[in-house]
Amino acid sequence: GAVVSQHPSRVICKSGTSVKIECRSLDFQATTMFWYRQFPKKSLMLMATSNEGSKATYEQGVEKDKFLINHASLTLSTLTVTSAHPEDSSFYICSARQTISRNIQYFGAGTRLSVL
Amino acid sequence: AQKITQTQPGMFVQEKEAVTLDCTYDTSDQSYGLFWYKQPSSGEMIFLIYQGSYDEQNATEGRYSLNFQKARKSANLVISASQLGDSAMYFCAMIPGFGNEKLTFGTGTRLTIIP
Prior knowledge:
The structure holds two protein chains of two kinds. Chain A is built from no helices and eleven strands. By secondary structure, chain A is mostly beta strands. The relative contact order of chain B is 0.33. In chain B, strand 8 and strand 9 form a beta hairpin. The radius of gyration of chain B is 14 Å and the shape is globular.
């Protein structure tokens, strides 16, 4: 299967700081990447769809000014949690779609964010 | 709206036995895709298997097979000869319609393989 790398895997930061999470497709080009948030013992919640070269599409209820998404190349999307607060602590995971015909999304390993 | 239902929050299975994880879906689209992902305790989501709504044969990938019953809107995952490493959360997911890329996930089933 295709490989998606996500970095960092774990980050602890102080309240008020910003955190950047990177998502890279290593062996394929991804015009579309996705960012999810997962609460403990819950399923994945789609936050936004990231399209290369254009603005991200955010799901209802997701603050676009809080969660900045940049998809500057066909292999890299970044999620920046701005002015992080303890309630932003969560597991964030990205995915990249490999081909149009099968629509399979391959996921990164996730980032566990803890805001103190 | 699309919906995925996984009715088994947890399952315990003896090692080497086969296991079936249930998944039903609801959509009005004629064209859609169904997926199963595995999430071990490390957190990564591992793609297991895909079934397209127009695929006539059930998908198989090694020890994984998808029992696709279109009329019943059912897409159960069957794992043959279970191994200890199969212990994980399993999510059924769906993409409705052609060109719609948003995955809708079920609530997941936690599978525990007993030695």
